[in-house]
Backbone:
């Protein structure tokens, strides 16, 4: 099995971003959604990104943001990739001329393969837990058996992952990457550096120590 990538999302502090990088995370996520307890503003995001070494992917998370709001953020913050967690259409996701990930909240009866086909231009699809009225960051896992085999997009698994269950999740789902936020925190938006290290190590263990 090839090495699974890891993303630490909901970063709000420079020290947490650097701890994620030091642990070996491939990407960090910055939340631009005011209702989230992990939201950052433009100044925070710029400071975090400026502190990063090279070859760490910075991902900006948006939920039904207006075109004006999103363009203002992109003008001010040098994000590598966008992550859409709302009801954005494929045309809307494509219109910013940036590589993007589309998040899907999984529940019984969903046609995940059809959704992957709909967002054909996405670099990957993030599968998260469906909770009514909550676009993400629920801290709850979903039934991984709902994910059909042979999807035509790189799958990023999210939702309730932590250092204790991520190895089992990877062995069952075999995703391209995993995404964690609450599972490595000591409080909302405040990361626990030992949990980050344990999470990334567990991801490495799942793919043969690569």
Residues:
């Amino acid at each position: 099995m090839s090495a699974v990538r890891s993303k630490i999302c909901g970063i709000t502090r420079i020290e947490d971003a650097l701890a994620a990088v030091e642990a070996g995370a491939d990407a960090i996520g910055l939340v631009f959604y005011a209702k989230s307890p992990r939201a950052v503003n433009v100044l925070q995001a710029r400071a975090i990104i400026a502190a990063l070494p090279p070859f760490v992917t910075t991902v900006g998370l948006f939920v039904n943001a207006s075109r004006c709001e999103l363009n203002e953020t992109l003008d001010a913050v040098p994000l590598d990739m966008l992550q859409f967690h709302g009801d954005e259409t494929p045309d809307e996701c494509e219109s910013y001329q940036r590589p993007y990930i589309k998040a899907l909240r999984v529940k019984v009866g969903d046609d995940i393969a059809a959704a992957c086909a709909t967002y054909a231009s996405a670099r990957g699809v993030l599968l998260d837990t469906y909770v009514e009225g909550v676009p993400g960051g629920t801290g709850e896992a979903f039934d991984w058996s709902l994910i059909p085999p042979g999807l035509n997009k790189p799958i990023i698994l999210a939702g309730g992952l932590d250092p204790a269950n991520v190895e089992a999740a990877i062995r069952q789902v075999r995703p391209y990457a995993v995404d964690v936020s609450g599972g490595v925190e000591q409080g909302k938006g405040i990361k626990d550096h030992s949990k980050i290290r344990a999470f990334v190590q567990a991801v490495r263990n799942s793919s043969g120590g690569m």
Residues 193-206 form the longest helix (14 residues). Residues 5-206 form a domain with the TIM Barrel fold (CATH 3.20.20.70). The chain has one domain: 5-206. Helices lie at 14-23, 42-50, 67-76, 90-94, 112-118, 166-173, 193-206.
